[in-house]
Amino acid sequence: MPIRIGTAEADSTFLSQGLALKAVLDRVPALAPVEVLQSPHASIDNANRLHQGELDFGFMAANWVGRAREGAAPFTQPIDLRMVAPMNAGPLFFISRADSTLRTVGDLRGKRVAIGAEQSGMAQHARVIFDALGLSFKDIVPAYLDFAAGADALVSRVVNAQLQCPIPNKIMTGLSERIDVRVLAYRESELETILRLVPFYRRTIMRKGALRGLDADVAQIAVVNVLVTHARPQAEIVAAVVRAIVAARDELPCLNPLFAGFAELFEPLRTPGPAALEFGGVALHPGALAAYRQLGIFG
What is the pLDDT of residues 26-35, one digit of tens each? Predict the structure, then answer.
């Protein structure tokens, strides 16, 4: 029976990462053939499909795994997830038109901001970021638009800004070619506050030239995206997946630029150990734990 990995919709970042991961896992006889499946609602669908036994592994943003474990909305029951491996740290960033007066995230007060569909992970990220900064959705005018619709709204000046994630992504690349854009910066104190309050975010640098209009390096936050499984898969299978992923930590960025900096994501495991990857109280699968110990990543 093939190993089934849930990703996201067509042209999504999770799907492209899943296809790169398949190329690595297919080389392991115990895992091949690997089947990469699309999940229209990404993290939420993948957790639910793991619960239903339709998937063996799934991509999720780290901010969703604790909610799935607890059965908190939008989940209707607790899901017995287990952590497997980090996948990437994807920048979350607000953009505006380059001809606007907006310069920083703090300037968004009172502005109309496209934050994703109402029940999406992006809308949740927007709420978490604003809450950490002492703002709320009452301080902005939220526009519940998906990536493509939000980009169109920014072009037509229906919104003043949009929350985007990550790079590279086709919609962001296309948008930067349609209009001149600006990535809004954080004050250092704001960035430090968000990183202190939100454990599933990391500091990242969006490098000059990463998209048209990004003329200087800019510090941003990034959400850790992870590969998860259910409690039920055999330890030997999960361990084989972890060993293949760690062995390919330098190859995966060559297969897909979304894995840039991938090897660095394992470094926190060397100090606090398993807790560095156990977001939202979701424990490592015993097979993953055994593999990391075997590989010497932690004792």
Answer: 999 999 999 9
